[in-house]
Amino acid sequence: MNQSCPTSRPDRRLSVAPMMEWTDRHCRYLHRQLSRHALLYTEMVTAAALVHGDAEHLLAYHPDEHPLALQLGGSDPELLGRAVQIASGFGFDEINLNVGCPSDRVQSGAFGAVLMKTPALVADCVAAMIEASGNAEITVKCRIGVDDQEPHEILPAFLETIRAAGVNSVTIHARKAWLQGLSPKDNREVPPLDHELVVAMKREFPGLEIIINGGITSLTQVEGFLASGLDGAMIGRAAYHDPVAVLGQADRRIFGQGEERTGEQAVQAMLPYIEAHLAAGGRLNQITRHMLGLFAGRPGARRWRRILSEGAHKPGAGPELVEQALGAIGDLHRRAAS
């Protein structure tokens, strides 16, 4: 864990979305081997779990993960303030309030996307978080609206409310959330995306940093949104399932710094990390489950996935299994070139 304090705002031109069960510390360390500059997010941590639970376990990360943002869930300003006080000692570059998740579990806790209905409460929450924060910037991730709300009407008012409370950066998922009758999976596809509304919000709030999220699958799209005047784009599932296509080219194309990274380079960089994790009592599949998409679309990808999926959970599985799987990629590459 790194407890150093951030010294400047993170560059949000490209970020990887917080995704429950996916963007844990092992996933983030892998993504960092592909891009040195993309902003990474933790899985959402509830304020209650952080205040009443094991903060070290919930917040621990490798120092190489920076720039790194913590996402919090909650709707109690006092509890969120206490959670931010705890998190401030861990050196996150940003602490983000979740106002976008539509899952039943989040709704039952009266936070996530349901907070779009109570912008004054969101303002109270972020004000408490800002007061409690050390150097980490407090940001919000929201939807364009929920249920029967009219996004063109409520979103400008929502942004004005949180801006007045001290928020200077917001990530907007460009899809309305239906809180009843749709699963979180369905909410990723229904109702339709409205990217143009998010672009319009940047024109209406030029001093507010606005990052767009939702349905973005390529760096070409990211480049287009940056050209439209938006400050950044956040990619979710595409960055997880095909990390090389998104993150391996990001430093050169989006940030103008560094060279492209390959899946092979990422695997080699992961080997010492894997050895350290196993030496500390961890299991190989805790890491390799995030590596299955490294060679998506390439010859040998299926064999890579099969070797890791079938072997990584077995007792004694270690780096040699990963090297064996990587060898399968290399063998096919050599055959194709001969």
Can you walk me through this structure?
The protein is of the alpha/beta class and 338 residues long. It folds into two domains: 14-253, Alpha-Beta Barrel (TIM Barrel), CATH 3.20.20.70; 263-337. It has 16 helices and eight strands. It has helices at residues 25-34, 47-52, 55-59, 77-88, 104-108, 119-132, 151-164, 195-204, 219-227, 237-241, 243-247, 250-253, 263-279, 285-288, 301-311, 319-337, and strands at 14-16, 39-46, 68-73, 94-99, 137-143, 169-173, 209-213, 232-235. The chain has an eight-stranded parallel β-barrel with strand order 1-2-3-4-5-6-7-8, surrounded by six helices. The longest helix is centred in the last third of the chain and has 19 residues, at 319-337.
